[in-house]
């Protein structure tokens, strides 16, 4: 090993911070000049480190499951009594559901009902909190050749949680509905009005741009709207709650702070393309008509 004097070591120690500052500045400039290159590099790094994220998170999942099982054992007698009561109720509702299902099939056959298109989806495990350039986002682990595309919709078992924004070979980033960059058109069930659900990096996204004469009602359901063709209509999101007067928010059906399993849906086959109206002129394809012009040879002749 080459001996280094104390003076040189002190000088090198003083240069570390300026060196890191210069490197960070160069990376930022490169990101502005070639954002696609930086994005590809970042996704490659995420794909490489994703197994490490899962390995680090695994012990925490085991500890969480252990304490969850301990709490379950404490309340096992109460849970047993509750399950017996629910089971008795479900047996009664089972026969009602069978009758309604048969009646539904019969009515659809009489009406020649056209079924909804099949929606494809995949189920993925949340590997890490991969906010990246976003404040509220998660990373999910995927298999190579997964077929997921940016813009697809992520749901939990209860409702909407976000959209896919970035795709890697073995991972994807999901922008959550409470992120500051999230803006989603929604329908309010009881008020029958439309609004925008805007994230603000808090637990609950807020409602904006609703009619002033018809404010949201406390507790009413919030569903997605298809304005802008960003989301299909009718996906459950949450319910309205007033944290303070005049400031309604949406409480999601799913806790966005403890996501474990998500489903990513491809709704491209769900879009409805309306036909052109009869007699409608497509201005983009309309050709300019040529007008007759005078023949110079005929000018001056009767």
UniProtKB/TrEMBL annotation:
Key words, A-Z: Cell shape, Membrane, Transmembrane, Transmembrane helix
Membrane-crossing segments per the record: 12-31
Keyword check for Membrane: yes
Any GO BP annotation: regulation of cell shape
GO cellular component terms listed in the entry, alphabetical order: plasma membrane
Pfam families: MreC
KW ATP-binding (keyword) present: no
Ranges for domain Rod shape-determining protein MreC beta-barrel core: 146-264
Entry similarity comment: Belongs to the MreC family.
NCBIfam families: PRK13922.12-1
Physiological role: Involved in formation and maintenance of cell shape.
Protein name from the UniProt record: Cell shape-determining protein MreC
Species whose genome carries this gene: Commensalibacter melissae
């Amino acid at each position: 090993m080459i001996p280094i004097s104390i003076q040189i070591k002190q000088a090198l120690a003083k240069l570390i911070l300026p060196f890191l500052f210069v490197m960070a500045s160069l990376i930022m400039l490169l990101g502005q000049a070639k954002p696609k290159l930086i994005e590809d590099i970042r996704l490659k790094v995420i794909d490489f480190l994703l197994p490490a994220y899962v390995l680090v998170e695994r012990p925490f999942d085991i500890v969480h499951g252990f304490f969850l099982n301990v709490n379950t054992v404490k309340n096992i007698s109460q849970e047993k009594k509750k399950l017996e009561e629910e089971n008795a109720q479900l047996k009664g509702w089972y026969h009602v559901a069978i009758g309604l299902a048969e009646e539904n099939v019969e009515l659809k056959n009489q009406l020649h009902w056209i079924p909804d298109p099949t929606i494809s989806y995949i189920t993925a495990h949340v590997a890490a909190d991969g906010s990246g350039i976003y404040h509220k986002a998660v990373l999910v682990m995927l298999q190579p050749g997964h077929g997921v595309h940016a813009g697809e919709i992520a749901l939990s078992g209860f409702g909407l949680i976000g959209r896919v924004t970035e795709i890697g070979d073995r991972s994807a980033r999901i922008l959550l509905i409470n992120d500051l960059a999230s803006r989603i058109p929604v329908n309010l069930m009881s008020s029958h009005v439309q609004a925008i659900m805007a994230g603000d990096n808090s637990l609950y996204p807020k409602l904006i741009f609703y009619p002033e004469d018809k404010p949201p009602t406390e507790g009413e359901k919030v569903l997605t709207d298809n304005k802008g063709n960003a989301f299909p209509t009718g996906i459950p999101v949450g319910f309205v709650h007033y944290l303070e007067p005049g400031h309604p928010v949406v409480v999601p059906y799913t806790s966005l702070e403890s996501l474990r399993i998500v489903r990513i849906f491809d709704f491209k086959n769900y879009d409805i393309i309306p036909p052109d109206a009869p007699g409608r002129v497509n201005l983009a394809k309309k050709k300019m008509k040529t007008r007759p012009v005078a023949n110079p040879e005929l000018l001056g002749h009767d």
